[in-house]
Amino acid sequence: MGKRFLAAFSGAVLALSLAACGGEGAGGGGDTSGEKPSDLTIGVSMPTQTSERWIADGNSVKQKLEAKGYKVDLQYAGDDIPTQSQQVDQMITQGADVLVIAAIDGTALSGQLQAAADAKIPVIAYDRLIRDSPNVNFYVSFDNYKVGVAQATALLVGLGLLNKDGSKGTAKGPFNIELFAGSLDDNNAHFFFDGAMDTLKPFIDDKSLRVKSGQTAIEQVAILRWQQETAQKRMEDLLTSSYNDGSKVQGVLSPYDGLSRGIITALQNAGYGGSGSKMPVVTGQDAEIASVKLINDGVQSSTIFKDTRLLAEQAVIAAEAFLQEKEPQANDTKTYDNGVKVVPSFLLPVQTVYKDDIKSALVDSGYWTAEEVASGQAKG
Ligand code: GAL
C-alpha cells in the first residue's frame, strides 16, 4: 500500500509538471452539443500493441466512432508511461473533445487529467480505472472482482475440487498450486487477485490446496506490465526453488493469457505435458487467439472471455453522451473508488471458457473464426 501511494505521489508530481508545459491552448472541450460529429475528435489512448486484445479494443472503438462520423485520434504508448502522458497531453493541446484512456499505470495521469478538466474535456477510463484524480468522469469495464472469482473457480474445476455447476467435486487433493497476479500499478490486478483469493482461501485453509512456494501475497506474485517473459522467468524460478524434490505443480492461477503462455512455456521446458507428466491446470483471461488454440489443444485449461466489442460499444455510448452534454448511464456507482472519488461505472459481465465452450462463446459469436482457433493466429 505504502508503495502504491508513493508511486501515485511521484507520478502526480511528474505529470503535473508535464501538464504545466503542455496543457495550454486546448481547443476541445466546452459545450459540444450543437456541433456536427465531423467537427468533434475523440482521443483514444491505449497502453500497448504487444497484446492483441488492446489492438482489438483500439480498432473497435475507432471503427464504431468513425461509423458515427466522429474523428478519432488513436494512439498506442508501447507500455511506456512517459509516452502515454505525452500522447494524452498532445490530444488535449490538439483539441480533443473527449478522452478515452486505458492507462498503463493507473496512478500516473493526474496531471493530464487536470489539464483535461481545465479544458472541460470529459475523461472516460477504459477497462483500467485511473486512480488518484477527481477528473475521471466515467469508467467502462467488466466486473473485475468476478473475473478473479471466475479464474479461481476455473482452477478448482480443472483440479476436480468443484464441478462446473459449483457443487463439490470428487477430487480431494492436496494439490500443489502457484499463484500469479498482474501489474501492481493496474487497479484491475488487485480486483482479480482479491476475487481469486477469496475463492481459493477455504480450499487453502482445509489443505486441499497448497501453495508450495509459500508465495501468497500479491506483492510476491505480481508481474510488472503483465509481461509474458517475466511470468516465464518466475515460473522457472518457482520450479527450481520449490519443485526440485520430485514434487509436481498441479495448478497455476494466471490472471491473463499472455502470462499463461509464459507459464506454459516454462512448464513445457521443464518436461510438463510430455510423456508421464501432466500439464498443470492453467487459467487465463482475454481469450487471446494464441491461448484459445492452447485451450483447444488441451494445453491451457480455461480463459475468461471479456467481449471487447461490447466494451468498445460502451465507451462509444459514454463518449457520445458527454458530447451531447449528458451524463452516461452507469450500472455501478459504488465499487470503483479511485482514491479520490467513486467513479460511476458501466460494468459488463464475463464468461468462463473451457475447451467445450470455444464454439458457442467465441466462434458462434463471431469473436474468432474456427480457422483462427485452429491456427492460433488472428487474421486481422
Ligand atoms: C488488464 C485487463 C486484462 C488484461 C491485462 C493485461 O487491465 O483488465 O483484461 O488485458 O490488463 O493486458
TrEMBL record:
UniProt main location, coarse: other
InterPro entries: Bact_Solute-Bind_Prot2, ChvE-like, Peripla_BP_I, SBP_2_dom
Highest taxon of source: Bacteria
GO MF annotations in UniProt: carbohydrate binding
Membrane-spanning ranges: none
SUPFAM superfamilies recorded: Periplasmic binding protein-like I
Protein name: Sugar ABC transporter substrate-binding protein
Species assigned in the record: Micromonospora costi
